[in-house]
Structures are given as C-alpha cells and as structure tokens.
C-alpha cells in the first residue's frame, strides 16, 4: 500500500495545528499582559475574537501558500514567512473589529499579539521541522527505495537524492541495468544487483519502492508490471515515462517529478483512520488478552509445561521481520515435530495446515477453534508491526520459498484477520487461492472493506467456522 502525498492545504496539517496553538497562546498572553489576572478573559467579545482568530488563520492557509516548501526553508526565509503570516492575521482581526463595531478592541493587545505570535510561530515551526528532520534521519522511519538507472545517469541521479533536507524514503541501493557494477559503491550507495538478478534481490530484501530513471531502460513497462505484481510501488521519472499501469499519480520524488504506480494508493487521511482503528482496537484487544491470560495461563501450564506465550520471527510488510506473539497451543517441541508431519500437510503450497494436529494439546485446540490463541497479537498491532486487518505474516521458512508473485501479499502490514480468515480459513487448502484473496484485498482496499471484514471476523470467531 502506498501513501499518496497530500496535494491540498491539508498537506501540512501538523503545521496548521501548531500555528493555531501558537496564535492562541500569543493572544491569551497578550490579553493577560494588557488586563492582568483580575479580568480573567471574561469579555465575550474577546472570547469571540479568539474563535475568529482560528477561522482567519484557516482562511489564510487555505487561500495562501503559507506552508509551500516549508520543510526546505532556511531560518531567514522562515522568519520572513512568519512575519507576513502574523501581519495578515492581525490585519484580519482588525478588519473583523471594524466590521462588527462591537467594541474598541485594545490596540495594545493587537501590537503585543503581533510580536508574540511571530516569536511563538517561528520557535514552534523551527522545533517541529527539527523533530521531523531527526525522525527522517532514522532509516527505520523511511520507505526503503531502490534506484534503477543506466550507467550514464547513475552518478547524476544519485547526486539528486543526496542531502535532501526532508524525505520520506531512504535509498538502500542502486541497480545499473546496462553495466556489470554489482558490489561497487557509487556516491555512498551500494550497487545491490545487476539486471539479471534484480528481481531475486527484491524478493529477498526489504524494498518498498523502486525509482526508475533512464530513457534507455529496455522494457520499462514489463519491469513495472513485474514489480507491481510483487507488491512494490514504482516511480517513473516523468522525463522518461510513457503510458503505464492503473493506480497512478504524479508527484515529486526528491527533485524529480515522477509517475507513481502501486497496487493500492491510499490518502494520508485513510491511513490515519486505519491506524486509529488499530490503536483503539489494540487497546481493547489487550484488555481482553489480559483477561484471557488470567484464565488460560494456569491451564496451559498444567496441560503442557513450558512458556505461556509462543513467539516467532515472522515476515511483515515488504520483507520486514518482527517478533510475533500467540498463546502457546502446541507442545514446546512443535517446530521439530512439524518436520515429521510435513507429509500430512493438507495445504498445497507454502503453508502448513493439518486437521487433528497431534502437537496441539486440549485447551490449545479450544483456543485455536475460537482464535483465542491470536489475542497476544494485539500487542503487535499497538507496536505497529501489524494491523487489525491485513494479510497473515509468513514464517521465514515459508517466505524463503515464495515466488515473485507471492511477494505481493507483503505489500501491506500483516493483519490479525483478513480476506482469507473470513473466507473459510483452514477450509481453503490451496495456497494460490490464499494469494488471490490477499491480492484482491490489497487492490480493492478501503476503510469500508476493513470494517466489513472485522464484522465477518466476529461471526467466524463466534461460530468457530473454518478453524483447525
């Protein structure tokens, strides 16, 4: 899933909220400096002006370009913008006072507010920009991008990505398609693959996005199609782009204008609400998991000595590995026993499912029937490794056997539930059908679909349908 860049005034909602807070603080401080504590902001007209102040600021942001290139501005440029912004706000407040004729607003308040708002806004914006910059300096917070280009353009292309003050991606490697340069370091970036082993690299490593740059790259359409089939987002330099795939947007990638295509393109607002659902659901789920721990922990210990929880490294979004938690429902040596039971695997493909699995002890069978063993994964959801709805994360062993098309399942965060779980779970015995269901979910994703799957999940869990 690719996060579409905001194109409207809402792009910098964080700075909008910050400015409103700074303006209100400056206004309140100006009021108390003028009237003191004895007159505790009781004048209705001044209270009304505090609300009008917010509306004026929103109008200035909406109709102006207050935050254009704000992340790239130097301090002197930022201060100039702050002066202009504060001056327009004060002018708007004075016009409001003149039109309403409700009272003679204190000119001292306007003057103090003008000065304080400039100081507060400048300090606030500078602080937020420094916070964002530090956050973006950490590659863990950035999308992993691979640059695909030609030998002629590789130096200039990588130079464009150097020293970007703010970015949402980190260049993890470069592929030179018309020269054998694998293993070299170009401008501090490793050449991670050649043209012939590029897809193998993508399959086995964390790759969120690929930037394609070069007018001599052969079969760009086929390259993009193959990457999209693997669930990777593709950016084309517009200078070299032509007719491409569906689900595409034009945006900026560093200093390049690119045509971006992905299996699913979501707006920041959609992703915000999806994450909000995860956080709320995660907290509620952890409470339920805590109650379940009190009930089932002693039974697990009695029936199968060993740890209460089972943890395992799983493969998440675009190859990221994380520790995955469940209530233990099998014997402690279940992984070793699995090798002996592979001949009885009822799934065709890269997953293991078996009815009446001898590794499962009695209460474990009950927990698995009603998905109680999955409750500790709400901790994974709160941490951000997983989502309420997504695709189930494979084990490292399963992932190692993936073909290129299977990687598309990892194009989004793994989920506690998903299309497979509400479509039959263990009743589905063909791994390719699981891949088809997951691919359908990703390409047709919406918040409404997530909510629909959550309600269906409740029904499936209560009835125990499709569990083994």
Automatic annotation (TrEMBL):
It is a multi-pass membrane protein. InterPro entries: Bact_transf, EPS_sugar_tfrase. Keywords: Membrane, Transferase, Transmembrane, Transmembrane helix. Belongs to the bacterial sugar transferase family. This is Sugar transferase. Residues 274-462 form the Bacterial sugar transferase domain. It holds the Pfam family Bac_transf. The keyword Transmembrane applies. One of its GO terms (molecular function) is transferase activity. The chain crosses the membrane at residues 12-29, 49-67, 79-99, 105-128, 279-300. It is found in: Membrane.
